[in-house]
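Deviation from plan, reported transparently: manganese (II) ion complex.
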Amino acid sequence: MTIRTLQQVIQSMPTSDGAGVKLRRSLGSQRGLYVDPFLMLDEFSTDNPDDYIAGFPSHPHRGFETVTYMLDGHLLHEDHLGNRGDLKSGGAQWMTAGRGIIHSEMPQQTEGRMRGFQLWVNLPANEKMKPAWYRDIEPHEIPQVTLADGGTAKIIAGSINVAGVVTDGVITGHTTDPQYIDVDLPNGSPFHYYIRDDYSAFIYLYEGKLLVGEPNIARPLATQCGGVLSAGDQITVTADNGPARFLLIAGKPIKEPVMQYGPFVMNTREEVEQAVRDYQNGTLTT
Ligand code: MN
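Because the crystal trials were delayed, the predicted structure below was used instead.
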């Protein structure tokens, strides 16, 4: 058994996207700063409507998946296929752009707190042009388990094994086998997660402090930082000096070239240029 260590810390950086939504970006904040198959992770967290009210009006995607998970707030998603998803606190949305999707993601509130995450998950070459797919996940559909040493975990994708009982999340069976787990730990509680040795894994800590790794040699991870983990078949973290809340994100690496231009993520420059032309010609999604 090999316990994973904290290999790299990715500090989240303030930025804005869409029509001026303020957010913090960890993965994807610099060119090439991704953890295969995960390309980007944004956290939006604000009580100020000016930071979110403009939303993300109509825009395209091709070649990957977006996962939006809301902690607080109310966001309406509408796409060119007529899907309409009303994301509320505790809900999530899994959207596979595939060949192409054109959608909007707009706040449905004019005051109060808006808080959540958007993760971009890459697709392998042979799935980049598959038909778009969409799944709206209501809060009550997300399995929540009590952890052996205290705390809770919500399993949005993948699965978790607690004392020999395996609980599956909502999304399973994708090629990259994504694991997306929201963990809430009380002070001093350890959390153990068993995983394939060769999967990529990182932690995004959105509240509190964590010690990552085996107790004697654990390294600290600070709030609003991403922690990329080394290879190994076990993840061990401990909430330090208070409770901690984090996302555990892991999956099977694709190991292919990544060519990104804005909302298009393909393998080659030619494929990206084709996506831009298709969008301009109105044929991105057909
Ligand atoms: Mn989008």
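Residues 56, 59, 61, 66, 103, 105 surround manganese (II) ion (CB under 6 Å). We consider this an acceptable substitute for the interim report.
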